[in-house]
Write a structure and sequence with these properties.
- The protein is an alpha/beta fold.
- The protein has helices at 2-25, 88-105, 184-198, and strands at 72-74, 79-80, 110-112, 123-136, 139-150, 155-167.
- Strands 1, 2, 3, 4, 5 and 6 form a 6-stranded mixed sheet that branches.
- Helix 2 (88-105) crosses helix 3.
- The longest helix has 24 residues, at 2-25.
- The radius of gyration is 19 Å and the shape is globular.
- It starts with a helix and ends in an 8-residue tail after the last helix.
């Protein structure tokens, strides 16, 4: 019985320590804000992805300034604020492309579309909102807002907005109700946004 009490006491102490670290390390809500410049959109192609992969071994996870606090990034379905949004299929493709690209950065042990409720203590959420979408014959002009949120406290640590054109791939796509778009610059920009928050690049790491 004493061992159980001791274990419970140590668990409480560890949680308190992590809480103190979080208070000291994390920026206050609303203070750390970024405004991204519009991306030029060169020629990418969407790579399809599988469902959630296994957790990466710890040796493959790159160190970052918040690695002790957050081991999971949740990328939920994109939010819609645009009056004329793109198709649901296109939004699902974008979400999966964001997940795949951020996994490649190896800043988190897990990058998932939905985190379990019980995992709230170690989870950051990438909120992506489509602010506007203007579909044109040559492509679509998109404006998005990105935010990084602590899933537990719903505190937004930083945010950015960007606007740019997603060009269609191929002439056949012009007659398609869904279309294929060159999305890699947008996907790369989202990954850079997350990386800058988790792992700022030193000058000698370029």
């Amino acid at each position: 019985m004493n061992r159980a009490l001791y274990s419970g006491h140590m668990l409480f102490v560890m949680r308190c320590l992590f809480g103190i670290i979080a208070i000291c390390m994390l920026p206050a809500c609303g203070i750390m804000q970024k405004t991204a410049q519009p991306h030029s959109m060169p020629q990418p192609s969407l790579t399809s992805a599988s469902s959630e992969p296994a957790v990466l071994p710890n040796s493959e996870v790159r160190p970052s300034r918040y690695a002790m606090l957050f081991n999971t990034l949740e990328v939920p379905p994109l939010k819609l604020e645009a009056q004329t949004p793109p198709s649901e299929e296109f939004l699902e493709q974008l979400q999966q492309a964001f997940i795949n690209k951020i996994r490649d950065t190896q800043l988190f042990a897990r990058v998932v579309s939905k985190a379990e409720t019980r995992e709230r203590d170690g989870v950051l959420t990438l909120d992506v909102s489509i602010l506007s979408w203007d579909e044109q014959p040559a492509g679509g002009v998109i404006e998005i807002r990105l935010g990084i949120v602590d899933m537990r406290g719903r505190c937004e640590f930083t945010h950015a907005t960007t606007r740019g054109e997603l060009k269609r791939i191929g002439a056949i796509a012009q007659a398609s109700s869904i279309g294929q778009y060159e999305i890699n610059p947008l996907v790369d920009g989202v990954a850079v946004f997350v990386t800058d928050f988790m792992h700022p690049h030193p000058i000698n790491e370029l």
